[in-house]
Amino acid sequence: MKFYFALVMALCAFFSSASTLPDFPFVAVTGQSSKQVAPDSAKLSFRVTTFHQSSEVANAQLTQSANKVLALLKASGIADKQITAFELDKSEKRKRDDNYNELEILGYDLNRRFEVEISDLTKYPALMQQLYATDYVHELSTSFDTSTRDEVETALIGAAAAQAKKKAEQMAEGLGVKIHSVFAFNDNGSFDRFFATFAAGESGMVSSAMMADRSAGVQQVFIPQSIEISKTVNVIYKITP
């Protein structure tokens, strides 16, 4: 019994900085589950960036390159609704003196970010190779995903919850107490900020970065064989002596 109260006091000290604690005895546990899944879709993001002393020339270069990119996407079977083009960003680049004071304008930076949803990964490698060879295209980044994510995550949450319950039962048995009922639970956050995670939070997407290598002067693009999807479940159980 002394150990039981010591556990409650330790939890109180640990979480006191996060939020108000429940006013009853409890045990807090975390369950985790993960699975490797083959990807079948991807989200590609990149920027088209130009610089020139003349705004007009920089804009013409950006327009020409963006049009070339859009033509490549269309030729790869990407529909307009799968493409998101963000607002054009323009900034001045100035010469600075030794004190970092701005002097005359050297030119203008123009850039536009694009996001592309790719539903057919067989077309992904060739598209990436063409984008690598396109002038003014920078910051290419890819996250891979699966169309079965919802089903996979539902199963993972169930497995993680079962693991959390088993942990709670083992702890209760070892301390000579009983699990009474579930007080609260969530599927995001981490144990070190356990109580804070019961407020509004966000769920991150698990993704795998695209890999590339050089061979004979040509970028070789690889699609990952699998991506890891994982879920964490935090649970607070009421306990009774």
Structural class: alpha+beta
Proportion of helical residues: 25-40%
Provide the β-strand percentage band.
35-45%
User: Could you spell the SSE succession in H and E letters?
Assistant: HEEHEEEHEHEEEE
Uncertain runs are: 1-10, 13-18, 194-216
- Shape, please? elongated
Total strands: the figure is 10
Note the gap between the termini.
Answer: 8 Å
Radius of gyration: 26 Å
Number of helices: 4
**Overall pLDDT, averaged?**
81
> Major sheet: size, sense and barrel closure?
5 strands, antiparallel
Secondary structure topology:
Elements: H1 2-15, E1 26-37, E2 41-52, H2 55-75, E3 83-85, E4 89-96, E5 102-118, H3 124-132, E6 137-145, H4 149-175, E7 178-186, E8 211-215, E9 218-222, E10 227-240
How would you describe what is shown here?
The structure is a single chain. This protein is of the alpha+beta class. 29% of the residues lie in helices and 39% in strands. A hairpin with a 2-residue loop joins strand 8 and strand 9 (218-222). The longest helix is centred in the last third of the chain and has 27 residues, at 149-175. The radius of gyration is 26 Å and the shape is elongated.
Concise summary:
By secondary structure, the chain is of the alpha+beta class. 29% of the residues lie in helices and 39% in strands.
What characteristics describe this protein?
241 residues
